[in-house]
Amino acid sequence: MKKIKITGLFTICSCLLFLFSQTALALTGKEIIDQTKKMIEPDAATSTVIMLIYKGDKALEKEFEIMSKKDGDDNTKTLISFTKPTKIKLLTHMNKGKESDQWLRLSSGKIKRITSSGKDKSFVNSHFTYEDLSSRNNDDYTYELIGSETINGDDCYKVQAEKKGNNRIYDKSITYVRKTDYVILRDDLFQKGALLKYIENSDIREIDGIKTPFKIVMIMADGSGKTELNVQTVQYNVELKDNLFNKDALR
Fold it and tell me: pLDDT digit string (tens) for 141-162?
């Protein structure tokens, strides 16, 4: 009887493993990216960050704070406030199904709106553009699972994304999603059919159950430089008032 039970149990386990593998293989690119969003997007968050901008042999250091909050319609508002060396602020309203609205407060106190034609410009002389600092709404893109690849020893899904419509900075992006936990380890960004730059996430830590990269680096593909973000502190699901994200908050 014991042998029969063991054999039966082995058969059941084998069937379950087969079904699981078939389900994993059946995942679409959109489903994989949706899983990453569930993993990394709390209702509200605050963090402090040190930015290091490398150009040639020089490294320029800046410090800023980030506040971010989602509303009931899955729109996201984010305020970046620099504390060193200048008092620049960037407010971004990510509107589902629409282009993001962005306003920049200069160190002089002047506020200007970032237009569509300006979203490909460098943010505070870094290798990030204003477009890079906008939250991505998954429904605004088409996704295709194009294979698997190993990134720093981790097996990853390889998902290609293209933004719908003609108003886009990048031709496409290729995102590498770790299969074990759906954490994004790398994102390749293309312009005019060629790799322009890529962003890497590392030093992944779990904060309040959320896998969080504490080191984020944007690297130019031609070797001309990189910008490194080192997260110092992070808090999730904190209480943030809506008026913190109004345009008047920039003054």
Answer: 899 999 999 999 999 999 999 9
